[in-house]
Each structure stands twice: as C-alpha cells, then as structure tokens.
Design goal:
Blueprint lengths: L2 H12 L3 H16 L26 H10 L3 H6 L3 H15 L3 E3 L2 E3 L31 H4 L2 H7 L3 H13 L2 H17 L11 H17 L6 H4 L4 H16 L9 H16 L6 H18 L12 H20 L6 H17 L28 H11 L13 H10 L13 E2 L4 E5 L8 E6 L19 E5 L2 E4 L11 H7 L8 E3 L6 E4 L2 E4 L3 E8 L5 E8 L9 E10 L4 E10 L4 E7 L5 E5 L2 E8 L2 E8 L5 E6 L1 E2 L2 E2 L1 E2 L7 E2 L1 E8 L4 E11 L1
C-alpha cells in the first residue's frame, strides 16, 4: 500500500461510525476466508457449484412455464409500435456487426468481446486473481474499470434478446447465448475484476433474468439456462455473493439498492435453490428499508445526483414488477414511494423531457430492453404511466418496450398525486422556477438549496451549493457541467465536481466542501433555505438561500443568494450577498451551455444559440465591480468544459468574475439574464 492509499484509507475511516468500523473489520476477515472458495478456470466442472445448485429434481418445468413462458412477450412488444421495434432491431444489428457504444467509446469487438479489455487505456484488467486482491480503484491495475464493468452489465445481451422476441430471428438469440456462455466460462466464482463489486453482480442478475424471459420463445432457452450446469452455478454464485457482501454504513447508497434489487429479481425468477426463499425474503426486506432511507419523503433521491434518482427508480421499479409477477408483491408503501419518485421526474422535466442535471451521473441503467437512447426520462415516465394512474399535469410521453412489458406484468395502480405540478421540494432543497405553461418559449431555472449529499461521505455530491441551472426551450444557457469521469483522471474528476465548475461563488480558491478523494467529502457545506415566493398558480417566482461552506475561513464568510424570475418580462435576476468582516478573494462563475455562443462587451455578454425553428438570443449583464474573463476549453488548469454523458467532454464558454470582499460587512453582486 502506497502513501496515497494509506492517506485515503485514514480519511475514509474518519467518516465511519464505530459500528461500521467493526463491521468492515469483520467483512475483511470474511473476504480473506472466502479465498478458499475461489474457483479458477482450470477447475473440474464437478466443482463449479455446490449440491444446492445441481440438485437432481429441480422444478424446471414450473420455473419455465410460470416465470417465463406465461408472459405474452411478442404480442406485448409488437403493440408498442413500429418505431420502437425498428430502433430496437437497428441497435441489435449494430451489435451483430460488432459495434456497441459504451460510455462514449465504441466497442468494435462485439462479435466476440474481451470482457477484461478497456478500450480507453488499452489495458486488460486481472482475470485470474482472487477478486478481493484486485484494486479496482487503480487505473494502472485495471484500466478504466467503468468501461470494463459496463460491458459486463449485459445490457447488449438484453437488447439482442428483445430483438429476438420482436422478430423471431434466431441469429439474435444465438449471439446472446454465445456471449452469456463466454462470460460464464471466463469468470468463475471470485476470479477477476468482475467479482469485486456488488452493484455489478446485482445488475448482471437482472439482465440474465430478462434475457431468459425474452428468449422464452427460443427452443434452446431452457438448455442455455436451467438445464446448463454452468449457468446454474453462475446464478447461484451471484446470489450467494450478494447475500454475503452487502453494502452497509456510509456506502449504503445506490449500491445497496442495486444489490437488493438484483438478488430479489433473481431469487424470484430463478427459484431453483434451497436458499431461494431465504434470499428472496431478505432481499425484499433490505430493498424496502433501504429505498426509504435513500429517498426524501418528497420522493427526491438523497444522493443529490439527478442521474442516480433515475437509476435507483429504475432498479426499484424492476424489482417491484418482478415481485408482482411472482405473486409476492412488495408493500403498498413501497409502491407509493415509487409514485412519488415518478412525480419528481414529471414535475422537474423541462419542456423537452430533460430532467435537472446536478451531482454525479454515469448513465447507469437498471435494464435495457429498448434501443439505447440519450434521455432516460421520457422512458421512465412511460413506465410510470403504465403502472400508475398518471396525474393530469404529467407530460405526455410515448409507450416503450419497457413500459409495455411492465404493464403486462404488474398492471395499473392508483396513486395519490399532488393536485398540481409541484415546483419546490423543500426537504431536498430542489426548486424549479419556470415561465407559464401557456408561454410559447419555456424559461426553466433550477435552484439548489439541498444537502451536499447522502451519508457521511456524500460520494456523488458536487460542491455546488446555491448553484443555478437555466434553460430556454430545453437548451442549456447556464449549464451544470456534468461528471465526465470517476477513475484514473484526478484533475478532471476534481474539476467537474468543483465549485468553480458550477454557477455559484468560489471563495479563497477553495471548494465550498472539502474533498478527501474521488468519492469522499470530509467536510460538507450546509445550505439553508431562506424562503420562496409563489404566484397565484402556485408556481415559484422567487427563491433565496444561504450556505456555511466558508465559515471555516478566517474571518468566516457567509454566501447568500436570491433568484427571481420576472415571467412577464422574461428576465432572471441573481443577487449574491457575501457577508464577512475581512478581505477574501472570490470568483463568481457562470458556465454556458455548449451550443451557446458568447460575445463580451464590457460587462454585457451577448448570448446566441439555435433552436429547431429559430435563432435565439439573450443578454447577460454582469456585476460591474468584478474583473471578468471569458474562457473556453482550458486544460491547465481545466476550465470551461461540459459533459453531456459519462466519458465525454466538450469545451464551452465559462465566464469568471474575480474580486475581493472589502470587509465592509456585505458585498452585493447582481447578475441579470434577459431573454430576447
């Protein structure tokens, strides 16, 4: 262990409770003991799985008939419409041709993929080492581990299986089967990088259940799964792993949801083992408990990362639908929470169907049975409309393959929606200001007064207290930067979650919260909502909040921000108050969207961009007391970058105004965005 690893471990330990430390010590002991259970690639097939995974009279006919064959998959998929089916077939044909886009890197080896190869760094991750000896955080060991793990989530296999279900073309089924057999044979129990993470294990189980379901009409499906010893062994190993190594304590975020959802889905659908009932009941208990812990009462995910709201919601829906289909439904309270989470999606989407962008996002999906699309949110809402009576204020969306399958498995439920579209979620500090629904061009503004993140490490939070995000008809004008990367590029990881990368104020060259590593914050800024103002329709038109992230300075400084949308004038005013008794340098930053051009003239910045039907413009009037610069795509240090998707970044304009608090009590900075 090098000094950097040791320092990180010390910081990580400092954010754990005594009970978590005790549990982690016990977990490390268990991991060392389990080394004796590792199965190498040269092991005899007789050692693939224990007796419970090879028992002589398993109920294969029951499993196949009830869990898989009884669902009218082909009829359901054909009812979606030709566009969805054509897009699905096109995606499957790309895979058949050897192509698959993976986190903005195109794989061209999909005819016979190398499960351990990272196309970004060109490294190959360990395949034979005992999994818990593999340091997946080290790029020099595994390459970009996200790239390697993502392929093994098997989303391309469910796309192939869905294409077979739609078309009946056995070429898709044969290719899906070859990929499954390849992965199963090259990843025996506890060997290599793919056994280092529970979230990956849970997602693979979901994909395998759905691959089996979508291949139900293929004559070789039972031989591939329930009648194949290696398949049964892998399914048993994955569930045994999840039952033994669950995320806990400060790590019990979206990972524990994926682990519990994967175990529940597999234990219900592959009900083949002596442990199945125990695994099923424990997974359901954990999932119900942890989803509630991970979610504010309003329905907003507590990680303060919008992409993870969608990911966790997908996982919970997949598990709930599976439990309903198996005749072991989850509680009414669980379903009610799903409805509230969907209400959040419907209420915060802009006019084009895009959700807010805040915190981390890695484009993670629970299940892919439609053609992969850039925006997950209309698809999520389509599932919501299939499972619940939709609120009148929900946006209208088209059905998808996933929504049609969910409806055929779980039916429709009543839901207690708000009478009108909410725009303020007080417990999460999430507020949306927008122009009237009757207006031709939507102005949409998100204001952040939420917690820094979830649990003691706030792993997926960004240092973005009081940040704003502004769109015009769905076009990013003042943009959230996104995420870009997790591992291997520390300078870029630091930039994309920094205060300077967001539309807020940085003081003394420091982030509002203190980072202790790429997924660890050792000090969290706390934000307090001061108030909101609403019009007669209940729409928020004014918002104000403050945070204490710079109270550690000497002398301390408090940042207070107010935002007002004058809807009739199409004018957004942002007022920042910096209160301190000393002198501190600070920077006020605004990141423009990647399609927005900027021309600075003194303290006025002309903004122009194109929309589908016309050219658009706005004027950004900046505080005159600051020294302003306009920067695009700087690299040393990084400044002026936007990441639309994980693994992708592009240059964009960043406006940065520098000044010094004068020690006169309160410095007030007023910024006005006037849409033309």
């Amino acid at each position: 262990m090098n000094s950097v690893d040791l320092e990180w471990r010390i910081r990580r330990l400092s954010k754990m409770s005594p009970s978590e430390v005790r549990w982690r010590i016990a977990d490390q002991v268990r991991r060392k003991r389990w080394a004796a259970r590792q199965i190498g690639p040269d092991a005899s097939r007789q050692s693939w799985a224990p007796r419970s995974a090879r028992r002589s009279t398993p109920p294969w006919d029951w499993a196949s008939d009830v869990m898989f064959h009884d669902l009218p998959i082909r009829d359901t998929l054909l009812s979606v419409g030709p566009e969805a089916g054509d897009a699905l077939i096109a995606a499957a044909d790309d895979i058949m041709a050897g192509r698959w886009n993976l986190l903005e890197s195109e794989r061209r080896d999909m005819a016979s993929p190398d499960w351990f190869f990272d196309p970004v760094t060109k490294r190959r991750a360990p395949q034979l080492d005992y999994c818990f000896n593999v340091n997946h955080r080290a790029e020099d060991v595994t390459g970009n581990v996200k790239q390697i793990w993502e392929l093994s989530r098997m989303h391309h296999v469910t796309v192939l299986a869905a294409a077979f279900a739609v078309s009946g073309d056995e070429r898709y089924a044969d290719r899906a089967a070859s990929h499954l057999r390849s992965w199963w044979s090259e990843n025996p129990f506890l060997s290599g990088v793919h056994w280092t993470s529970g979230i990956e294990t849970g997602l693979r189980l979901i994909a395998w259940v759905w691959a089996r379901r979508l291949l139900a009409g293929w004559g070789k499906a039972a031989q591939l799964f329930e009648r194949e010893e290696l398949a049964r062994a892998q399914i048993w190993w994955h569930q045994q792993y999840l039952a033994a190594f669950r995320s806990r304590g400060s790590s019990a975020n979206n990972h524990v949801i994926a682990e519990a959802a994967g175990l529940l889905v597999a234990a219900l659908a592959f009900d083949w083992f002596e442990e199945s009932a125990r695994w099923r009941d424990e997974a359901a208990r954990v999932l119900e408990h942890e989803l509630q812990r991970n979610t504010f009462p309003s329905g907003v995910n507590r990680e303060m990362a919008s992409e993870y709201h969608g990911f966790v919601l997908e996982l919970a829906v997949v598990a709930a639908v599976e439990a309903e289909w198996a005749g072991r439904p989850l509680s009414d309270g669980f379903w009610a929470l799903l409805a509230r989470m969907l209400d959040v999606v419907a209420a915060t989407m802009d006019v084009t169907g895009r959700a807010p962008r805040y915190g981390d996002g890695d484009d993670g999906r629970a299940l892919v049975v439609d053609a992969p699309t850039a925006e997950r949110w209309p698809g999520l809402l389509a599932i919501g409309e299939a499972l619940f009576d939709a609120a009148p204020w929900w946006p209208v969306v088209n059905p998808t393959v996933a929504s049609s399958l969910a409806a055929s498995m779980a039916g429709r439920r009543a839901a207690a929606h708000p009478d009108r579209r909410p725009s303020h979620f007080a417990d999460a500090g999430l507020t949306v200001l927008r122009s009237p629904a009757s207006a031709a061009d939507e102005i949409w503004c998100r204001c952040d007064a939420g917690p820094h993140g979830f649990l003691s490490i706030a792993a997926h939070g960004h240092a973005d207290a009081l940040a704003v995000e502004v769109r015009h008809n769905g076009t990013d004008v003042l943009a959230d930067p996104g995420t870009y990367c997790y591992h291997g590029e520390p300078a870029w990881r630091t930039y994309f979650r920094s205060t300077l990368a967001h539309n807020t104020v940085e003081v003394a060259g420091a982030d509002q919260s203190t980072s202790g590593g790429p997924f660890l914050w050792t000090r969290h800024a706390h934000t307090t909502l001061i108030g909101v103002e609403s019009d007669d329709d209940g729409e928020v038109t004014g918002w104000s909040a403050e945070h204490d992230g710079y109270q550690t300075l000497s002398p301390p400084l408090r940042h207070r921000r107010s935002v007002r949308l004058e809807r009739s004038l199409r004018r957004l005013e942002i007022v920042d108050d910096l209160e301190t008794t000393g002198d501190h340098p600070f920077r006020l930053a605004f990141l423009l969207g990647p399609t927005v051009a900027a021309r600075m003239a003194g303290h006025e910045v002309g903004l122009t961009w194109s929309e589908p039907t016309s050219e658009r413009c706005a004027t950004l009037s900046l505080p005159r007391d600051l020294s302003w610069t306009l920067t695009r795509g700087a690299t040393d240090p990084p400044l002026g970058w936007y990441s639309a998707h994980f693994g992708e970044k592009r240059p964009t304009w960043a406006l940065v105004g520098e000044g010094v608090c004068g020690g006169t009590g309160v410095d007030t900075l007023t910024t006005v965005l006037q849409f033309g």
